[in-house]
Prior knowledge:
Layout: H1 2-8, E1 19-24, E2 27-33, H2 43-46, H3 49-53, H4 69-79, E3 88-93, H5 97-106, E4 110-115, H6 121-128, E5 132-135
Parallel strand pairs: 3-4, 4-5
Antiparallel strand pairs: 1-2, 1-3
Helix pairs in contact: 5-6
Amino acid sequence: xxxxxxxxxxxxxxxxxxxxxxxxxxxxxxxxxxxxxxxxxxxxxxxxxxxxxxxxxxxxxxxxxxxxxxxxxxxxxxxxxxxxxxxxxxxxxxxxxxxxxxxxxxxxxxxxxxxxxxxxxxxxxxxxxxxxxxxxxxx
Length: 139
């Protein structure tokens, strides 16, 4: 979990720094943090659209120039041809419902997280898909 928090430090989001890593057999398969797509301006440079529009956390995910850390884990694994089927995702925050759907389809078996997130569908969907959800206390 410490490594997920270290990865989160690379985030370029002005609202929340999130880091995630996919792990199998104690080996890191892929990492991700929240921020703008490669080659595009980051919120640190151009400001936060969500802040400008007053969008609350957990709502209207499409109104953001950034990708979530969990999305970037899946993308990085696919980009490099690494299967994350059956892997454990360590994430600083509970994934949102959109990321949860992606994690389910990517075959993630367990999600370990520390902090909550304002999205009530997440736990319901992960549980229904048989994904084990484990909350750990901060150090």
